[in-house]
Amino acid sequence: MVVELKNIKKSFGRLEVLKNISFSLKKRERLVLLGPSGCGKTTLLRIIAGLETFEGILIKNFKKIGYVFQEPRVIPWKTVYENLKFVEDDDKKIENVLKSMKIHEFKDYFPNKLSGGMKQRINLSRALVTEPDLLLLDEPFSSLDIHIKWNLLNDLIKEWNNRDLSLIMVTHDIKEALMLGERILILSNRPAKIIKEYFNVKALSEKSLIKEIVELWNERR
Ligand SMILES: Nc1ncnc2c1ncn2[C@@H]1O[C@H](COP(=O)(O)OP(=O)(O)OP(=O)(O)O)[C@@H](O)[C@H]1O
């Protein structure tokens, strides 16, 4: 087990955000938490990353976290290469990840010269270059066009194949969840709780899954 949550609860003042969240992540698993906007997904990731207080039990069995934010948090006055150098000194590791994430040819560019998809490639590379064993992804692809999203997710899965990496992505995007997840947990509207679990995601039909999830979110408003 890489991480285990038992009855995690979180409120901001009187606003109840998370209600008894329990799940665990296996080693090398790709888990997606799929929930509607504003249900508490970022809060949950921040709790796992140790950035937020909470009630309940969190068992951490990982060494290093990589965190990819919703918006590309690149440093604008540093080049692509310098953005990675900021977190990792080993040039060989930087070269390798820039190549595998397909931004090597842009390594001397400043981020503002690059598209949103390319900026997210920098973000992902920066998270991966430090060789985390747990990668947390906070809807990093939600604003991207479907073909860019598809290519990026596929490159991420290739990276995952070559690394000792477990990952948790939170998203409200059903397609994105289906592309990346091996297992999907469905969160309710706020306060978020787990209302359904899908194993063996590949065997599911996208259309029926979308219908089922939308019905779940509608009935629990
Ligand atoms: N530090 C904070 N103080 C007060 N309220 C907060 C704080 N952080 C988040 N919230 C509130 O908690 C709720 C859940 O926020 P969170 O960002 O976790 O949801 P989310 O599912 O990630 O949303 P989105 O899909 O829009 O990114 C929101 O109503 C938000 O306004």
From TrEMBL:
InterPro entries per UniProt: AAA+_ATPase, ABC_transporter-like_ATP-bd, ABC_transporter-like_CS, ABC_transporter_ATP-bind, P-loop_NTPase
* PROSITE patterns listed in its UniProt record: ABC_TRANSPORTER_1, ABC_TRANSPORTER_2
Q: Does the keyword Protein biosynthesis apply?
A: no
The Swiss-Prot or TrEMBL record annotates one GO molecular function as: ATP binding
Does the keyword section mention Nucleotidyltransferase? no
| Domain ABC transporter: start-end pairs | 3-214
Keyword list (alphabetical) reads: ATP-binding, Nucleotide-binding, Transport
**Gene3D superfamilies for the chain:** P-loop containing nucleotide triphosphate hydrolases
Q: Which PANTHER family match?
A: ALIPHATIC SULFONATES IMPORT ATP-BINDING PROTEIN SSUB (PTHR42788:SF13), TAURINE IMPORT ATP-BINDING PROTEIN-RELATED (PTHR42788)
The molecule here is called NitT/TauT family transport system ATP-binding protein
**Taxonomic source organism:** Thermosipho atlanticus DSM 15807
